[in-house]
Structures are given as C-alpha cells and as structure tokens.
Amino acid sequence: MNVADNLRILPATSGAMDWFPLWGNVNVLHTCRSIGLPILLIASVAGCKQPPASRYTPDTESARRGRDAIERVGCAACHEIPGIHWPQGRTGPSLVGFDDFGPIAGSLPNTPENLAAFVRNAPAAKPGSTMPAMPLSEDEARDVAAYLYGLDDE
C-alpha cells in the first residue's frame, strides 16, 4: 500500500472543508486515513518558506537619530510612518513595512545609498518625483534610511 492509497477525493460539500479552512475555493478535498494525515502535515510544514530576512540591519543609534530627523523635518505630514504617531499623512505612500519594499519610488534599486539620496533630494535622485527635497544633511539622510530599513511589518 502506498500513500496514494490512503487518499480519497471527497466532494467539497462533505463537511470535511471545516478541517481545512484555507482551502475554501478547492473543489475537491483529499483526506487521509491512518498514516496519510501525518505525512501530509509533515510535508506541509517542510514545504513552508521562511519569511525573508531583513535586507539590512540598521545601527540602532543611527536609526534613533533618523527617527528624530523624520520628526524634525515633518516626513509624517505626507507619509504614514510607524513610530511617528502624529501626523500620519496620506499624500505619500505608507512606509509601514518599508524593509519589504521593492524599488524606491518604483524605479531606484532599494539600497541604503539610493534611499539616503532620495530622502534628501528626491527630484535629483529620481527626476519627476513629486516628493520635495528635504532639509537633511547627508548624515541625517543616512540616519533616516537606517530608521526606514528598521520598519519591518512583522
């Protein structure tokens, strides 16, 4: 007897769907007898991907200075930024989970150098950007980037 012998196909209306709520749109459901269920569970866990690790590990002190710079220049007037409770602007994109973002402003490779350049002078870093140049020194812009890379959505 092999594993396939332990599987049978049930109609979706059998009530067995209650066992697998994430399979709500599946028309057929495989159920297992005896050894089949443990094998299925082990295979399911083994097949899960680990969440991606953070791309960067920002320096804690730099990130703290970055948060202070964000508050000083008012980035939250346009963006929702975790850790900044007021204001929480909606003109710009939310920065919740920034660590998982793709390209900066949709086109710049998401690197610390590009991010620091963008937050300091977005029109120069990406011509056509609607984000204004911000009154940040180069060091402050790097600190802001450190803070943003620390914004994980998990």
TrEMBL record:
Span of domain Cytochrome c: 61-152
Gene3D superfamilies per record: Cytochrome c-like domain
Keywords, alphabetical: Heme, Iron, Metal-binding
Protein name listed in UniProt: C-type cytochrome
Species whose genome carries this gene: Qipengyuania spongiae
